[in-house]
Amino acid sequence: MSEFFDEKIEVEMAGDFPRPVRFTWRGEVHEVAAILAEHVDTGFGMLPPRSRKWYTRRHRRYYTVMDSAGVVFDMYLDYADRKNKTWWLIKRVMRNEVA
Question: What are the b/e assignments for 34-57, b being 16+ CB within 10 Å?
Fold first, then answer.
């Protein structure tokens, strides 16, 4: 079972490359111990075919991370607006769901 959140979070990255090192969620700092998975999404989501243009594509980088306490989280960086990149916490994954 997972807990779905979809909340904006603050993330400290490793240099200029968007890899999370630590993040703050609900006032609590989580140190990233491991990045378990990573992928980029530049698709169109649920947009109807007539609305699919190059400028309507998503620009997201998804991560599955484990914090120093062993808790696994799914998060993504939305960088469609290059001037205002935002990080989002999607869910906390229960231990028995981790592959």
Answer: eeeeeeeeeeeeeeeeeeeeeeee
Q: Is the pTM of this model over 0.85?
A: no
The 10s digit of each residue's pLDDT in 14-49 is: 877 788 999 999 999 999 999 999 988 766 666 677
Number of domains in the chain: 1
Distance CA(54)–CA(74), nearest Å, equals 26
- What domain range is 67 assigned to? 2-97
d(CA 53, CA 35): 32
